[in-house]
Here is the input.
Amino acid sequence: EAQVTQNPRYLITVTGKKLTVTCSQNMNHEYMSWYRQDPGLGLRQIYYSMNVEVTDKGDVPEGYKVSRKEKRNFPLILESPSPNQTSLYFCASRPGGYEKLFFGSGTQLSVL
Amino acid sequence: EDQVTQSPEALRLQEGESSSLNCSYTVSGLRGLFWYRQDPGKGPEFLFTLYSAGEEKEKERLKATLTKKESFLHITAPKPEDSATYLCAVQADSNYQLIWGAGTKLIIKP
Here is the structure.
């Protein structure tokens, strides 16, 4: 089944404790992206990747890192999480530049 | 500045009561306008892409239309299972990135 898989589904952590949210797609998509979703603010892009080893900042990149060493994987790294990073995170992918996005099921992160 | 505004923020309808959701946009050169459906706690699911003014697309009880300034998502005789948040996003000719609206939360009461 074609899908975007995120893990974990739920994560509770404390301020300053490094964490990684994994994202994997099995559709051989070139483009991958991370979003955060907060009530009333809609989806905001954190980082995106046009292909392996090519990443770029979105609208809200501060406090986040990403890497794209393989085409299928695009992990999101929070090196020192803070409470304002408490949010619902989505990974998404698409074949190229202008097609529809396929989303993962989301990761609900709480930073205490 | 490119932006997308969806209205209303929330809409409560009785089952069978038809209505429309609005997505107004300003973008320098529209490449495409996308509609997604999002159920609580889940990722958005693709519904439609519209590319040019006058274009219409339908899927079951949903029909999306596009003008040069806005798009409408018409819901005909909705059922409770149509309850969800509907998201609109636009993509400009000059940019791969999507500009998202805040969404409209639709509640259909039996």
Q: What stands out?
A: Residues 67 and 74 of chain A are 6 Å apart (CA to CA). The interface with chain B takes residues 4, 31, 40-45, 48, 50, 58, 88, 90, 92, 97-98, 100-106, 108 of chain A (CB under 8 Å).
